[in-house]
């Protein structure tokens, strides 16, 4: 299970974890209470109006009419007057909409024991690779025997009956449906997280010497795999001449939409056309003349190791392992080249690997720049947390496998908010593929919907305030600078500035 904090939203399929506050409530019950209170306030207003009309209808010249007017006025204006109660109910409904809804699903004892058991078994197998190989071979052999007998039986029945075997077709159909639904099932119930945990524990334990078990083995496993690789780089950071000017972001969703533009390779009427390895730095000028900055970082663009494009598998592994990487160094260099002053507020944003880079940069530059906010979509956690004072928001899809690659439950905090959307329950694909669940365009849609669906949620408030300090009020303008990160040896030899290789 993951630690989890609900928001003040009553729409099904959204969850906000983190932010300040200790209160626990049921979202649907709270929604119903708010609706009942508001309906009651409307009825009380109608009653107040009816009392006024009744008083006006009384005969002002007769003693009975005067007495009735006084009684109706007392009922309409007294301490228990309907309009006063209606006003109180509306304030109460508004307070309920703003109240902190922190229902914390702390890891249960059973789940923690399960994680410990997974780490212990995988770690033991990692310490004894020959035993692990034997277990794997036995499992593979058993599966092959069972599958072979099932296939042989299906073929035999087809030959004897002289028609396709219905059992075989049913088995194939069930396997196909299972394969289609498997990613969502693995992510929804946390099995993928446990499997990554096991892999991390196994790889970490395979290092020479006895390894002390830990419930966060993925960083150690990533260091085992990627630490011995030759250094990636050297890397050049190219300043793009006359880059396209990205739209001025007004919301967090707008910032993420600019991140999505980094993936547009072919220019069309609706796309800008970007080379690989491009990150954007936007200088925002507020109406009062103050400046702020938004740094937008795309995710993985190639799955090669030590590729020419730095946004590769090597960078992923080094980020998960907490090792230095050249994309983080490139972003920091781009911030320096752009002229960001130490006291000017900065927002970092990234998708997938770009989200990990954004967190890595925030951890590295806390003393040099005023990073106010970091927003990531579809990104695993990295070992380095953001420093105190930085507001962090992670967008996650229930069906997205990538955020679970760190092998640990989500850990929201006062400065870390996790917004999770169930795509199948909120208008997305009923059974999204791995690519659909992780697509940056789908995450932009989620950010737009979250701004609408979760408006006013206390869990969203702190980050929204920090992002607002950066994005500024209406009338803010933006100038975009772009940088291309590359390890192309010919470019590196000819083009400063350089970024040191990962070590």
What does it look like?
There is one protein chain. This protein is 49% helix and 13% strand. It has 503 residues and is an alpha/beta fold. The protein has three domains: 27-98; 109-226, no CATH class; 235-492, no CATH class. Strands 1-8-7-6-5-4-3-9-2-10 form a ten-stranded mixed sheet, with helices on both faces. The longest helix has 33 residues, at 129-161. The chain is elongated and about 100 Å long. The two termini are 36 Å apart.
Shape: elongated
**How large is the count of helical segments?**
16
- Which structural class fits the helix and strand makeup? alpha/beta
Listing every helix as H and every strand as E from the N terminus to the C terminus, the arrangement reads EHHHHHHHHEHEEHHEHEEEHHHEHE
Query: What is the helical fraction, as a range of percent?
Result: 40-55%
Overall pLDDT level: 80
User: Approximately what portion of the residues adopt beta-strand conformation?
Assistant: 5-15%
Strand order of the largest sheet: 1-8-7-6-5-4-3-9-2-10
For the record, the count of structural domains works out to 3
- Seen as an oligomer or otherwise, the chain set is single chain
Unreliable segments of 5+ consecutive residues:
1-10, 22-27, 100-107
DSSP strand count: 10
For the sheet with most strands, the description reads: 10 strands, mixed
Radius of gyration: 29 Å
Pfam families: Thioesterase
InterPro entries: AB_hydrolase_fold (IPR029058), Thioesterase (IPR001031)
Protein name: Thioesterase domain-containing protein
Domain Thioesterase: 326-466
């Amino acid at each position: 299970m993951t630690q989890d904090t609900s928001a003040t939203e009553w729409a099904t399929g959204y969850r906000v974890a983190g932010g300040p506050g200790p209160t626990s409530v049921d979202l649907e019950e709270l929604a119903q209470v708010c609706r009942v209170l508001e309906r009651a306030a409307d009825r009380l207003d109608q009653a107040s109006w009816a009392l006024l009309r009744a008083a006006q209808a009384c005969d002002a010249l007769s003693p009975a009419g005067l007495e009735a007017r006084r009684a109706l006025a007392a009922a309409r204006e007294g301490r228990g007057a309907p309009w006063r109660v209606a006003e109180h109910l509306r304030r109460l409904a508004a307070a309920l909409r703003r109240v902190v809804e922190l229902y914390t699903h702390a890891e249960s004892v059973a789940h923690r024991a399960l994680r410990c058991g997974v780490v212990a078994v995988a770690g033991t197998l990692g310490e004894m690779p020959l035993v692990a190989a034997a277990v794997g071979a036995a499992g593979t052999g058993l599966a092959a025997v069972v599958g072979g007998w099932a296939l042989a039986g299906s073929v035999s029945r087809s030959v004897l009956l002289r028609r396709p075997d219905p059992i075989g077709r049913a088995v194939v159909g069930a396997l196909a449906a299972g394969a289609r639904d498997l990613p969502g099932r693995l992510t929804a119930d946390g099995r993928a997280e446990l499997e990554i945990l096991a892999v991390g524990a196994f790889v970490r334990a395979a290092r020479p010497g006895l390894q002390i078990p830990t419930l966060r083995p993925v960083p150690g496993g990533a260091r085992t795999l990627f630490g011995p690789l030759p250094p990636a780089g050297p890397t050049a950071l190219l300043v793009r001449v006359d880059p396209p000017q990205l739209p001025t972001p007004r919301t967090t969703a707008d910032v993420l939409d600019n991140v999505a533009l980094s993936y547009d390779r072919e220019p069309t009427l609706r796309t800008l056309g970007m080379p690989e390895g491009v990150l954007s730095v936007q200088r925002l000028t507020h109406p009062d003349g103050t400046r702020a900055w938004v740094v937008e970082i795309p995710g993985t663009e190639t799955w090669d190791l030590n590729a020419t494009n730095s946004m590769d598998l090597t960078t992923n592994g080094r980020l998960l392992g907490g090792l230095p990487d050249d994309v983080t160094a490139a972003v920091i260099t781009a911030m320096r080249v752009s002229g960001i002053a130490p006291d000017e507020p900065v927002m970092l944003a990234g998708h997938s690997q770009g989200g990990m880079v954004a967190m890595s940069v925030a951890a590295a530059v806390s003393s040099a720049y005023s990073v106010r906010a970091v927003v990531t979509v579809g990104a695993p956690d990295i070992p380095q947390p953001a420093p105190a004072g930085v507001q962090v928001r992670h967008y996650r899809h229930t069906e997205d496998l990538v955020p679970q690659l760190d092998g640990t439950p989500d850990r929201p905090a006062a400065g870390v908010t996790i917004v999770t959307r169930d795509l199948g329950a909120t208008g997305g694909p009923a059974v999204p593929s791995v690519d659909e669940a992780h697509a940056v365009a789908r995450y932009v849609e989620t950010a737009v919907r979250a701004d609408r669906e979760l408006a006013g949620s206390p869990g969203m408030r702190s980050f929204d305030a920090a992002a607002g300090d950066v994005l500024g009020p209406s009338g803010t303008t933006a100038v975009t600078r772009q940088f291309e990160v590359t390890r192309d040896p010919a470019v590196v030899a000819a083009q400063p500035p350089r970024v040191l290789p990962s070590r």
